[in-house]
Amino acid sequence: MIDTHCHLLPGIDDGPADLERALGMARIAVEDGVRTAIVTPHMREGLFLNERPAILEAVDRFREALAAHDIPLRIVPGSEVHLGPRLAERISAGRLMTYGDAGRYLLLECPDRARPPRLEETIFELRVAGVTPVLAHPERIRHFRDDPESYEEMLRLGALGQITASSLLGTFGPAIRSLSEEWVRRGLVHLLGSDAHDRSYRPPRLAAARRRWAELAGEESARLATEVWPEALIEGAAIEPPEPRPPERRSLWRRWFGAS
Predict the structure, then answer these.
(1) Which region holds residue 189: left if phi is over 0, alpha if psi is between -120 and 50, else beta?
(2) What DSSP state is assigned to residue 248?
(3) Rounded to two decimals, what is the model's pTM?
């Protein structure tokens, strides 16, 4: 499996504070069946200034540490870029890190609680520049939970969706789990990531969520989400998901309390 969203680099954002913790997380990932981790440190002006050169340097150091400790985890550079102005321009200038440094896909984080400002315009600008935005954990973004149609509109504009593994397992509560399951069934999310920050609450594990994905949408869909399309992110190859299925008809009780 390939983890498309994780915070493994030590001392660079709100992931592991030091190398020992980062190596411990890497061991957990390998034991769980993850063979490649796309590391995605936060890039947010005024909070985490992790631009492309700094990320590449941190990735090189971490690869050396993994090799020295005989941990067979392939590390690929990426970044979780907070929604902001001139993203396409900053990618072109070599400041922002895209998936695999290939210039084709960008992991885009929206505000947790507020309506994402200029999101439609940003998606359009990125697409014109040849970059496909991958929306990070949309099931955990309040605006998309309150207005799922607005999330579907972002997909129609050309974005992809990436779901957090623990969302499918109920870590964030039954409402988010139920919505996540519905989106997996309908094909409204395309990639799976751990969004790992530590070794306990949100560790770098995918296997259980991958099994749940397969139960909901089939083995081939789970393989695309954890193997085929993640490799396409790294290589800058095309990802062309099928049209999503129509919405399910379920009661509000089942939606909010997670019955499936």
Answers:
(1) beta
(2) P
(3) 0.94
